[in-house]
Write a structure and sequence with these properties.
6% of the residues lie in helices and 65% in strands. With 237 residues, it is mainly beta. It has one domain (3-236): Beta Barrel (Porin), CATH 2.40.160. The chain has an eight-stranded antiparallel β-barrel with strand order 2-4-5-6-7-8-9-11. The chain is elongated. The N and C termini lie far apart (45 Å).
């Protein structure tokens, strides 16, 4: 099985830089955390990790199955309710998840297969998360906290494209969920966050559900398990 990671740059970093610039311009004697409640925004990158990857046409396991992990993007607004060192953090986030799945289709009436098809899958989601955390370091203006929680993932659009420049879209809301582990760092108003989202229970893709996809792909099912590693930074007021 082949695994690769592909990193690209987009104008998202300009917005991140602008947020940090605003944070640096505010007064420097503020605390990282108020006594009761804070709110913040963060932008960042995510990377989908695929495992247990198999592709079937009907009941036949297809050869040349591989995948490429790519980076996607996220934007999140959150609130933090402080109970001494313990905090509760509800969030609402927009995510773009990207990956490429490859497989070979059989040539009709032969034992041979076509060259691998590279199918790009780009999903856009709205996620609601709830985290419970604990500040190991609680020395203003510095905070270092660990957290755990869960996320409800609402996928509202998935784009499929191939090397032939054919593209197809699947719309309509589908729900899923994941568990979250991570840690955060605050330096005055500046906020950093690294987290791992585990075990989407149903990351399978049945291509028959994609409108207008060529008939050769209608009976193809991509079975996989996915997890997401993300890094973000922003400001917390």
């Amino acid at each position: 099985m082949l695994k690769k990671v592909k990193i690209t740059n987009r104008p998202l970093f300009r917005f991140v830089f602008a947020i940090l610039l605003i944070a640096c311009m505010v007064e420097t004697n503020v605390q990282a955390q108020s006594r009761k409640m804070n709110w913040g925004i963060r932008l960042g990158l995510n990377a989908v990790s695929v495992s247990n990857y198999k592709v079937y046409q009907g009941d036949e396991l297809l050869p040349n199955s591989s995948y490429i992990n790519k980076n996607g993007y996220l934007a999140t607004g959150f609130a933090r309710f402080n109970l001494k060192r313990i905090f509760l953090q509800p969030e609402i986030a927009w995510n773009e998840y990207r990956r490429t799945c490859s497989f070979s289709l059989p040539i009709e009436n032969t034992d041979n297969y076509y060259m691998p098809t590279h199918l790009n899958i780009d999903s856009k989601t709205i996620n609601t998360c709830f985290l419970v955390g604990y500040n190991i370091v609680n020395d203003y203006p510095f905070l270092f906290g660990v957290f755990a929680g869960s996320s409800l993932i609402g996928t509202y659009r998935t784009n499929f494209s191939m090397e032939s420049e054919q593209s197809f879209s699947k719309t309509g809301l589908s729900l899923n969920y994941s568990g979250i582990l991570g840690f955060s760092i605050n330096i005055s108003r500046i906020y950093f966050d690294l987290r791992y989202e585990m075990s989407w229970p149903d990351a399978d893709s049945a291509l028959r559900d994609v409108p207008d996809l060529p008939e050769d792909y209608q009976n193809v099912t991509i079975k996989k398990t996915e997890a997401v590693l993300s890094f973000s930074f922003g400001v917390m007021f």
